[in-house]
Design goal:
This protein is an alpha+beta fold and 128 residues long. It has one domain. It is 27% helix and 20% strand. A 3-stranded antiparallel sheet has the order 3-4-5, with helices on one face. A two-stranded antiparallel ribbon has the order 1-2. Helix 2 packs across helix 4. The chain starts with 11 loop residues before the first helix and ends in a 17-residue tail after the last helix.
Length: 128
């Protein structure tokens, strides 16, 4: 289990959720993916969410979540995809890119984010 990094301004609920996500078995989420995301200070400041084997993030701690941070998916053929889940259009999704390793996928995701985003706020998307 990860040790609390004591990030300033990060709500306690975010820290607790990270500890929960990091302890999930590999049948739920790829541990390499969660560890790589947790090691990034910006992603570590967001609320982590697991859905259908993907690692998603919210900039707020309560529903409705923010839907503006791309998600990380393990690919069946190997490697990882970074996907914007809530794009407008037919599918509502847009692949940002593909990476061979979890660390590369995290770097790709973080490169798409405004630097000023984070930490997550206590509240809903409407409070952002």
């Amino acid at each position: 289990m990860a040790k609390d990094k004591g990030d300033p301004g990060v709500p306690e609920s975010v820290t607790k959720e990270w500890l929960s996500v990091l302890s999930e078995p590999s049948s739920v989420i790829d541990p390499a993916l969660t560890r790589a995301a947790y090691e990034n200070p910006q992603l570590r400041s967001f609320l982590p969410l697991i859905s259908h084997g993907s690692l998603q993030f919210s900039r707020c701690t309560r529903y409705p979540w923010s839907r503006d941070v791309p998600a990380l998916f393990r690919r069946r053929a190997g490697g990882f995809s970074v996907i914007r889940m809530w794009e407008t259009g037919e599918s509502g999704r847009r692949e940002v890119g593909v990476a061979d390793t979890a660390e590369e996928a995290v770097a790709l995701l973080v490169a798409t984010l405004p630097r000023e985003w984070g930490p997550a706020i206590e509240g809903t998307y409407d409070d952002l």
